[in-house]
Amino acid sequence: MKIKTRKVGIGFITGRKSFRDVLTTYMKCWGSHVLAVNESIELSLFVAYDLDYNNTKRSDYTNINIELREMLKEIHFISRTSIQTDVRFLMKKGVLTKNESVILFERGYAGKRNAILYTAIKQNMDTLLFLDDDEYPLAVQKENDIESWTGQQVLRTHLKYIDDTYITNGYHCGYISSIPNMAFNDIMTENDFRKFIEAISNDIINWENIKAIMVNGSIKYADADIIASPAVDVALSVGTKFITGSNLCINLRSPNQTKPFYNPPGARGEDTFLSTCIADRRVLRVPCYTFHDGFSLYATMLKGVLPQKLHHVSMNTKKIETRFYNTCVGWVRYKPLLLYITQRNRYTELIEEMRAKLKETLPKLCSYFDDPRYMQLSNELDKYDREVKKHYAAFTLSQSAWSNLMDYTI
């Protein structure tokens, strides 16, 4: 009996010239360990690219060498223009309104993820694996102050488990946090910084996790026991099954059961908001890591040059300080909606707690970094608090609009 071919989509959101090197690394890994021994898998590539992020041009993404192209059944490049063409068609057919199309496809990372998800469903993919262009299929471990590296079978691990669940999500190591190690002092103590992190973080990105990573110089090491263990169910936490946006696989065999990504305007958190929609779904954490090169320190790893010792990252450059500040802005912007969705009965109380902690700690951050911008975080909180009901309406509209889109598409 002929085995049914599994149609697997690989999704990248990218704005970096290094994208093709990342793709090459993954494809060569899969070619030797997955595709070479399994003729029943067809891989297709879905790339949503942003030319403005790093002043790139289309050919930085589309010039994929012939060896890789021969390993792929289809390649779909998704630009702002191409998704607008789809949107105009869907509006003309009465499937989406203008407002719905903006919410689904024209808003930050969520819009790009939805464009990939929608295109993959249109192309009848069975499975879609999201990967980031700054994450590599490697795990770094540390024992007795010695760091060691292990290649990770990302695709094979997800395919092993995805048929029996809605989402599989792997682990991350390396520079997973944009908060580098900091030297506390009388201007800002560790307790001050803890209060600040408690104000802007969520149940997964919390002080205990962040402090442990900071102590390691902003590095999270892989756990050998996890790599050797089977997948585990993701637990429900405050009505949410927390996932990350990459090393993330979605089962598309029932497209009408899929959910869209969403983020408030100017914010991130599209993976977190999807997490709030899957409380009734089975979600598995699967035993494979990707190494996050969050500070763009190790592009040479894509050429096979593995560092003997990872650099600790400290708050010692304007680039790192700016990255940290932008992360704080993003967290403040999406936390009101997260609280409104998951803890509405305590929303006012929790927002006031957040506001009080920011009032206490922001002047200290301004002094510590010699940067008055941190006071703007209070204004950001006030704005996103005022607009939380508007953002919640858009969030719920994204769900119904996606449902209508799926009814039309399939």
Write a structural description.
With 410 residues, this protein is of the alpha/beta class. It is 43% helix and 16% strand. It has helices at residues 19-33, 59-62, 66-69, 80-92, 98-105, 108-122, 154-161, 190-200, 207-215, 224-227, 270-275, 318-342, 347-369, 376-386, 388-409, and strands at residues 6-14, 41-49, 74-78, 127-132, 135-136, 138-143, 146-151, 167-174, 232-233, 248-251, 283-292. The strands form two sheets. Strands 1, 2, 3, 4, 5, 8, 9, 10 and 11 form a nine-stranded mixed sheet that branches. It has a two-stranded antiparallel ribbon with strand order 6-7. Helix 12 packs parallel to helix 14. The protein starts with 5 loop residues before the first strand and ends with a helix.
